[in-house]
Amino acid sequence: MTMKKKVKVGNITLGDGNIYIQSMLNIRADDISNSVKQAIELEKAGCQIIRAAIPKTECAELIPALKNAVSVPIVADIHFDYRIALKCAEMGVDKIRINPGNIGSSDRIRAVVDICRRKNIPIRIGVNSGSLEKKVLEKYGGPVPEAFVESALENVRLLNQFDFDDIVISIKSSDVKTTITSYRMLHERTNYPLHLGVTETGTAHMGIIKSAIGIGSLLCDGIGDTIRVSLTADPVEEIHAAKDILKACGLSGGINIVACPTCGRTQIDLISLAGKVEKAVEGINKNIKIAVMGCVVNGPGEAREADLGVTGGDGKAIIFRKGEVLRTVPEEEVLEALMEEIRKLP
Length: 346
Ligand code: SF4
Hints:
By secondary structure, the chain is α/β, with parallel strands linked by helices. It has 2 domains: 7-248, Alpha-Beta Barrel (TIM Barrel), CATH 3.20.20.20; 256-344, 2-Layer Sandwich (Sulfite Reductase Hemoprotein, domain 1), CATH 3.30.413. It has 12 helices and 15 strands. The chain has helices spanning 32-45, 62-69, 82-90, 106-118, 134-140, 145-160, 176-189, 204-220, 235-248, 270-280, 299-302, 334-344; strands spanning 7-9, 12-14, 20-24, 49-53, 74-77, 95-97, 123-128, 167-172, 195-196, 226-228, 256-259, 289-293, 308-313, 316-321, 324-330. Helix 1 (32-45) links the parallel strand 3 and strand 4. The chain is elongated and about 75 Å long. It binds iron/sulfur cluster. Iron/sulfur cluster is lined by residues 260-263, 265-266, 293-295, 297-299, 302. Residues 260-263, 265-266, 293-295, 297-299, 302 line the site of iron/sulfur cluster.
């Protein structure tokens, strides 16, 4: 495969080797004040690209309101009506999500392409189970990976025919395995930046599991440039989950906590301690690994790789640095002692 194409979306560049976190507003587009409020919360939580559904031309008013309120790029999500895309482009949107195959005649596609080219607005082709064309579904007998890839590439062709190349692609299925296989196939066949996600994953618990498997598998393969965790929940939850997926895949900095699962040897109230450590280190921007382990039998050994480790032992807690004992403290002082040691690290 040739070099990954770089696509500029507002002030960030997809394809530059970073993985950008995005989410979508779930407030009606005509409720500008609450949409703006949610966008500010998302940005504060760490969202790097914010998408809003724009169902009517009048709703494009939301774009400048969002642009004034946050500094992250704003994406307009548009279905079918090319005039909404034209309006959003005029209103200063940073990216448009639209499937050219759904907007009708080639004159309409050309009109969208022309304004996007003039204003340097990229287009994301977003294929999902619901948007697969009838003829593709008939050819493959259902929403299989080959169908997703063919649909995406056909949409790419519709933009390429007008010499438009500023493209990002997503192909999301609600089936995790289909999503993974589809993206792997697409990655082999194109060099456009890929927006990863599993669609319609459900409520927070299963949604996070499905997204972690789907998005995480692809990220570990080196596939993907931006991720969206879709949850039937507050979108701020999507940002927390996305950050944790990146962390679990070793793709983000910050404090990485490892903790043992506890067993019959556990000599400290580990479940509560691990939770307290997680809470206490929130917002600390150090690139370190902390191990929270239950006993001296396996704890120090298992924590050897960690920058700091804490292990329970006979009513006391032992703090380690790279497997070496630093100090022994009463159990009730362990959190404070650990925080002190964290502060000493660069
Ligand atoms: Fe059990 Fe100790 Fe291993 Fe934790 S570190 S799982 S307490 S043996």
